[in-house]
Every structure is written in structure tokens, then in C-alpha cells.
Design a protein that fits this description.
Layout lengths: L5 H7 L6 H20 L6 H17 L5 H12 L5 H53 L3 H40 L1
Helix pairs in contact: 2-3, 3-4, 5-6
Keywords: Coiled coil
């Protein structure tokens, strides 16, 4: 496929630009620069020249076009594999960003799990101290009350362990997703 910018060819052949031509060029340049910025294409002379030709061709031959149209024409006209490295690099950057977000989330959630574990340890330690103290002051009536307290603490600890297990299962699933 060969693309041409008729206006550029005329200019290169000595054609004197009119006000309409200059206005048309301004319209092309405006869209071209927006496109290049939007797609992180460096505003270098070679890139600018090549993309100007693409946009000039598109404006001269199509009323409406998309970024995909422009990239397709550029790829076909200028380089067979012009965008493959850029696409792979973009995909890699997206994957890295996704991994960083997942890692941040896992880190936050693991901190919460550690806090839950620390809280559970504190509760167990407090319960142990209370049991030891009550055991030292034991009488039959207090033993029943203490058993009830122990049962309540065990229920609470089971609930905390259940929450911890659910969080760990969730993180395990997230890690498995990353491996894919």
C-alpha cells in the first residue's frame, strides 16, 4: 500500500500554499499532535514527518477515521513491524502495573492478617492469664463462670481464624491469577 499526501507533494513541487491550504495543514497538525500525545509517541522529527503524511492522507481521503485506522496505515506504509515492539512494551507495562497493584493490595491485606493474628495472640494471652488467675482463686461456682468465659473466647478465636482463613484463601486465588 502506498500513501501520499497530495498537498505535501504539491508543496514540494513549488506550489504556493493558499490560506485554505494553511488552514487545512493546521487542522491536520492539530489532530496529529493530539494523536501522538494521546498514544505516547515521541514528538521527534521523523515521527512527526511520518505521522503528518499518515494524517494528511487520512484527511484527504476519509471524513472520519479512528486511531486504529491511523496506526494501521502507518504500520503498513512505514514499517512492517513498526508497532510490534511498542505493543509488547505497552502490554508489559500494563502487566507490571497490574502486578504492582495486586502486590500492593496483597501487602495491605497481609498487614491486616498480621494484625488479626497479633490480636488473636493478645486475646489468647489475656485469656490464659485470666484462666490462670481464676484457677488460683478457684472455687466451684467460679469454675463454671470461667468455663463459660473460655467458651466465649474460643468462639471469638474461631471467628477470627475463620476470617483469617478466608483472607488467606482469597490471596491464594490472587496469586494463582498472577501465575496465569
Amino acid at each position: 500500500m502506498e500513501i501520499k499526501c497530495k498537498l505535501l507533494e504539491q508543496f514540494n513541487n513549488g506550489y504556493q500554499l493558499t490560506k485554505e491550504d494553511i488552514s487545512f495543514i493546521a487542522k491536520i497538525v492539530k489532530e496529529q499532535i493530539k494523536f501522538m500525545i494521546r498514544n505516547n509517541i515521541p514528538l521527534l522529527p521523523t515521527n512527526y514527518r511520518n505521522w503528518f503524511i499518515v494524517f494528511c492522507y487520512l484527511f484527504e481521503n476519509k471524513q472520519n477515521f479512528t486511531d486504529i485506522d491511523a496506526v494501521s496505515i502507518y504500520k503498513n506504509f512505514f514499517e512492517e513491524n513498526c508497532c510490534d515492539d511498542k505493543v509488547e512494551n505497552f502490554k508489559s507495562q500494563l502487566q507490571m502495573q497490574k502486578l504492582e497493584k495486586i502486590a500492593d493490595k496483597i501487602s495491605e491485606d497481609l498487614e491486616m492478617v498480621v494484625k488479626l493474628i497479633e490480636q488473636g495472640d493478645t486475646n489468647i494471652e489475656n485469656s490464659q492469664k485470666a484462666i490462670e488467675q481464676e484457677w488460683n482463686n478457684a472455687n466451684i461456682e467460679k469454675i463454671g463462670e470461667n468455663v463459660e468465659k473460655i467458651l466465649e473466647e474460643l468462639r471469638f478465636l474461631r471467628e477470627q481464624n475463620k476470617e483469617l482463613k478466608e483472607k488467606l484463601e482469597y490471596y491464594n486465588q490472587e496469586v494463582k491469577k498472577i501465575k496465569r
